[in-house]
Input
Amino acid sequence: AQSVTQLDSQVPVFEEAPVELRCNYSSSVSVYLFWYVQYPNQGLQLLLKYLSGSTLVKGINGFEAEFNKSQTSFHLRKPSVHISDTAEYFCAVRRSNDYKLSFGAGTTVTVRA
Amino acid sequence: DAGVIQSPRHEVTEMGQEVTLRCKPISGHNSLFWYRQTMMRGLELLIYFNNNVPIDDSGMPEDRFSAKMPNASFSTLKIQPSEPRDSAVYFCASSLGTGLNTEAFFGQGTRLTVV
Output
């Protein structure tokens, strides 16, 4: 089985400041990693994904994440946030031979002017 | 494509009543998932269909919950009888298979309140 831990439940940040959301996972087999964003009263939207290859993955809206196999982490970063980035962010893991997405508990990002 | 369409967006019902949630996946997608989101438990996979066949329903919490997929373009999740602890946001997601580049697309969810 795999599990996903998002280390921060709430992250307040000022506009134009950088933000990093931490995600660690555990799995006995190789995995695919995802970050989803959920805006208020909306469904989940894929930000980016790591399947293989380069460990630095770039996604939509200026977000990027780095896969670190030795530390079993997949932290999400954005160098300069906007008010519109206020949302909940979910890290998710799927085993390479499985269909199930396991989600972390989510991190709420609140961007203030 | 309009994406994954769920209805209703909001549902308020009394305890003991039957509730039916509906989902229309993206045309051409052959995998469909029902998730439940609560503050306490986060996002939980309830059931997964592939080519209209239920593959894994181990996440369905109780016999009060049932799901069907009569054809490739429609699925329902039914709760009978409903209880206050079923209050949650229920998401449907679809994807094109479960291969390497598969991405799950989510609907906007149904917010269920059982009073």
Q: What stands out?
A: Chain A has a mean pLDDT of 93. Residues 49 and 73 of chain A are 13 Å apart (CA to CA). Chain A touches chain B through 20 residues (CB under 8 Å).
